[in-house]
């Protein structure tokens, strides 16, 4: 299942799901989800509520060298 706040398989699944939804491109999501997990998902507070906006995702993708939604 999904989880966050550390590096692992749950955060990897969450990162992939977020990018697949945002990018609407499975190959692009697969290409960038590990870096997105490391930069964004692992840094989210494990025990607190959080949100990611489309702008947050876009900024993270820019920082990791991914592309944004078209």
Could you explain how this protein is built, in words?
- The protein has one domain.
- Helix content is 57%, strand content 0%.
- The protein is mainly alpha-helical and 70 residues long.
- Helix 1 packs across helix 2.
- It has helices at 9-23, 26-39, 54-64.
Topology readout:
Layout: H1 9-23, H2 26-39, H3 54-64
Helix pairs in contact: 1-2
Q: Compute the average pLDDT.
A: 93
Strand content: under 5%
* Fraction of residues in helix: 55-70%
How many DSSP H or I helices?
A: 3
Uncertain runs are none
Q: SSE string, helix = H, strand = E?
A: HHH
Topology, number of strands = 0
Computed Rg? 11 Å
Sheet with the most strands, sense and barrel status: none
Shape: globular
Can you tell me the number of structural domains?
1
Output the keywords:
mainly alpha, single chain, 70 residues
How is this structure best summarized?
The chain is mostly helical and 70 residues long. Helices cover 57% and strands 0% of the residues.
């Amino acid at each position: 299942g999904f989880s966050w706040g550390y590096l692992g398989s749950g955060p990897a699944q969450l990162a992939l799901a977020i990018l697949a939804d945002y990018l609407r491109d499975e190959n692009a999501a697969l290409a960038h989800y590990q870096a997105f997990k490391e930069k964004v998902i692992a840094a989210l507070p494990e025990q607190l509520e959080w949100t990611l906006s489309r702008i947050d995702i876009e900024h993270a993708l820019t920082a990791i060298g991914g592309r944004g939604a078209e």
